[in-house]
Amino acid sequence: METKEPSIPQAQFADGTVYLVGAGPGDPELLTLRAARLLSEADIIVHDGLVSSDILDIAPATTQRVSVAKQRSRHSMAQDQINALLIAEAKKGRKVVRLKGGDPFIFGRGGEEASDCIKAGVRVEVVPGISAALGCAAQAKMPLTHRNASSAVSFVAGQCKGLSDQNWSGLAGKGRTLVIYMGVANAEAIVEKLIADGAAPDLPVAVLENGTRDSFRALRTLLTDLGDLVQREQVKSPALLVVGEVARYGDATDKFLEYAQMAGVEF
Ligand SMILES: C[S@@+](CC[C@H](N)C(=O)[O-])C[C@H]1O[C@@H](n2cnc3c(N)ncnc32)[C@H](O)[C@@H]1O
């Protein structure tokens, strides 16, 4: 397949390597064996805010750690500074682990970091991680596809600028599952957008908060009541919105089952 990256002769690569490593959604037991090995071998770990201390603790206490935590509308380090740091450390010959929540290539800016490193002559390896959608769905026992309910899944970013100019028609509806990352703060606008683009207001919705962590919650309602549920339950990031028939499946605590029943969701 044609690559967009410039081809750099091997001899020109720096001695160090940048490993873009997926840390999964929170539970350290969901790390891959390769991720755990690289954490124990790294010279420096450059990590996101969503990576839990349990995971960072896998590395020896002496390993250098740099947090580049990003939060909605607050960045502790700009993306180009992060890229420059990765490149500079690898050019010193160091083994650089760039540790990201979930998977590096799902809403993780892994593509930008990989391109900049390759352009700078730095070797890159990518270690996939369990994305939040997969971790949350497993914990909620909610299949993202199901022979009776859904044969397609879309992952969409809900905090995107210009939401009203995007075309969301066909993303949510019969026979399909829509998983929205970073959508909690925009829940009301997302509901309006989906309904304006043709989604039925009575589609089931699940809100999956703090997936694979002790504080996990799975809340269910109907699309039209999503904004209300998010406010009433004070849902906080990190959380996913899952829209579609599959939201009827899986666990729900009695309290949320009650809300769902009030809203007319059948289980
Ligand atoms: C910048 S994106 C990173 C996604 C990540 N690369 C992945 O593959 O899961 C951050 C968003 O992922 C979702 N997320 C990450 N971890 C989560 C978790 N443990 N539970 C629920 N949602 C999570 C939330 O929507 C959060 O706002």
Overall description:
The protein has 267 residues and is α/β, with parallel strands linked by helices. The protein folds into two domains: 14-127, 3-Layer(aba) Sandwich (Cobalt-precorrin-4 Transmethylase, domain 1), CATH 3.40.1010.10; 132-263, Tetrapyrrole methylase, C-terminal domain (Methyltransferase, Cobalt-precorrin-4 Transmethylase, Domain 2). Helices cover 27% and strands 23% of the residues. It has helices spanning 33-41, 53-56, 79-91, 110-119, 132-140, 187-196, 226-232, 254-263; strands at residues 17-22, 44-47, 64-67, 70-71, 74-75, 95-100, 123-127, 150-157, 175-181, 204-209, 217-222, 239-243. The strands form three sheets. A five-stranded parallel beta sheet has the order 3-2-6-1-7, sandwiched between helices. A five-stranded mixed beta sheet has the order 8-9-12-10-11, sandwiched between helices. α3 packs across α4. The longest helix has 13 residues, at 79-91. The model has no long low-confidence stretch (mean pLDDT 90). Residues 25-26, 50, 100-103, 106-108, 131-132, 136, 181-182, 208, 210-212, 237-240 line the site of S-adenosylmethionine (SAM).
Quick description:
With 267 residues, this protein is α/β, with parallel strands linked by helices.
CATH class of the largest domain: Alpha Beta
What is CATH's topology name of the largest domain? Methyltransferase, Cobalt-precorrin-4 Transmethylase, Domain 2
Integer tally of domains: 2
Q: What is the spatial order of strands in the main beta sheet?
A: 3-2-6-1-7
Question: Order of SSEs, N→C?
Answer: EHEHEEEHEHEHEEHEEHEH
Cα Rg: 20 Å
Name the bound molecules: S-adenosylmethionine
Can you tell me the CATH architecture of the largest domain? Answer: 2-Layer Sandwich
Strand content is: 15-25%
Task: Name the average pLDDT.
Answer: 90
Tell me the major beta sheet.
5 strands, parallel
Give the total of beta strands.
12
Helix content: 25-40%
Structural class: alpha/beta
Count every helix, treating DSSP H or I runs of 4 or more residues as helices.
8
Report the principal-axis shape. Answer: elongated
CATH superfamily of the largest domain: Tetrapyrrole methylase, C-terminal domain
Low-confidence stretches: none
Report how far the terminal alpha carbons are from each other: 46 Å
